[in-house]
Design a protein that fits this description.
Blueprint: E1 8-9, H1 10-20, E2 27-30, E3 38-39, E4 53-54, E5 58-61, E6 75-76, E7 82-84, E8 96-98, E9 103-106, E10 109-112, E11 122-123, H2 144-152, E12 157-161, E13 164-169, H3 174-189, E14 193-196, H4 203-208, E15 214-218, H5 229-236, E16 238-242, E17 244-247, E18 253-257, E19 260-265, H6 269-288, E20 299-302, E21 307-308, E22 314-322, E23 325-328, H7 336-341, E24 344-348, E25 354-355, E26 360-363
Parallel strand pairs: 1-17, 13-14, 13-15, 15-19, 17-22
Antiparallel strand pairs: 2-12, 3-12, 4-11, 5-7, 5-8, 6-10, 9-10, 16-18, 18-19, 20-26, 21-25, 22-23, 22-24
């Protein structure tokens, strides 16, 4: 029988992951597939534009020629303006672009009707990209806007870290399969490359394979007659932790197969999800060498009613937004109905007995 000798504090588990899980090797990736991935090197683009260009259609002119000009005090322009369109290089000896209605052409002569500031309507050389200022730094996870900006700057490939995570549902139940699919989707969205194994695969074979940077196993962590995943990890790898001081998810385990981290999750949706959010994502971030961990929108809200928790256990609680407050829906065991009705989750730290009504809490989104 698999037994838990000690519930390891969550902080110790995370510290162990930070110290022992190493970043994967960098690889070159096409820009079109880079969203969600973590940069392994600074993203640097050549100077853009190479010369000053117009940001609007209008008249290219010298701004000083319009000093003191207004609609009631038009003034002839000393230098003839030149018509220009968006994206065109600025003509020599001009420094601004006036809108068409700011200049009046009469008998071949030009009059300024409004004062134009130096640089108005102009993108200076290097205004979009400066090689001395990276577009993004190594360790930052890219979003869709980053990728679009890189493509516009002319970048075609990037050096990224994309951890390969093998997800193994130990049993073919509908519940465990659903958990596996959820985690695989979250891995892909957060910069990894998930491989979802067929349910019921042999854990020993997976631990021996070198086809992934990390392994996530779902099921078999408890003390049931058919629960053997922890014993199998002891036999074929290294068990670092069995039993984490958190709820739900107390029976989870962490270990290694060679240098590859192995995360064993309980076969319950709420427990597997909680451990993945608090431990699995940390493992993925270390593999990707990601520094902008809290990329999701976190909302501070007052708690609608009191929440009690057990000192010594980190507790994840689903909440629903309503009336500008966060309403807790369940604790300890999180029913499917509570998960589907919730808008996000909060964490009660292990040194707390809970939160009183009105306490400000961080509401984080689900995967």
């Amino acid at each position: 029988m698999q037994t838990i000798a000690r519930l390891t504090p969550l902080a110790e588990v995370l510290a162990m992951i930070d110290s022992r899980v190493k970043p994967v090797a960098a690889r070159s990736l096409d820009i079109a597939a880079a969203a969600g991935r973590t940069l392994a090197a600074d993203a640097v683009a050549p100077a853009r534009p190479s010369a000053a260009m117009a940001l609007r259609d209008g008249w290219a002119l010298v701004a000083d020629d319009t000093l003191g000009v207004g609609s009631y005090t038009p003034s002839p322009l000393l230098h003839p303006p030149q018509r220009i369109e968006v994206g065109q290089p600025m003509p020599p000896d001009t420094d601004s672009v006036a809108q068409f209605d700011a200049v009046k052409m009469r008998n071949g002569l030009a009059e300024a009707l409004a004062e134009i500031g130096p640089g108005d309507g102009v993108l200076p050389a290097g205004g979009d990209c400066d090689p001395a200022m990276p577009l993004r730094r190594a360790g930052e996870r890219l979003n869709a806007l980053d990728v679009a900006a890189f493509a516009a700057a002319g970048l075609a490939r990037l050096s990224v870290r994309e951890p390969r995570i093998r997800v193994l549902p130990l049993r073919g139940s509908t519940l465990i399969t659903a958990v596996a699919r959820l985690l695989a989707t979250d891995i892909d969205r957060r910069g990894g490359a998930a491989r979802l194994d067929l349910a019921g695969g042999d854990l020993g074979t997976v631990l021996a394979a070198e086809s992934a940077d990390a392994i996530v196993v779902i099921g078999g962590t408890g003390a049931g007659r058919s629960d053997t995943s922890v014993l199998r990890l002891v036999r074929d790898g290294e068990l670092a932790v069995h039993g984490i001081a958190m709820t739900p998810g107390e029976t989870a385990a962490v270990g290694f197969a060679g240098h590859r981290p192995v995360l064993l999750l309980p076969g319950r949706l709420d427990a597997a999800l909680a451990v993945w959010l608090l431990v699995g994502r940390r493992m993925l971030e270390r593999l990707a060498d990601c520094i902008n961990r809290e990329s999701e929108a976190v909302e501070m809200m007052p708690l609608a009613r009191k929440v009690t928790s057990t000192v010594g256990l980190a507790e994840l609680i689903p909440v629903r937004r309503g009336g500008g407050q966060a309403e807790p829906l369940a604790s300890k065991y999180l029913p499917l109905s509570a998960l589907t009705r919730s808008d996000g989750w909060i964490l009660v730290p292990p040194d707390s007995e809970g939160y009183s009504a009105g306490s400000s809490v961080q509401v984080k989104p689900w995967p």
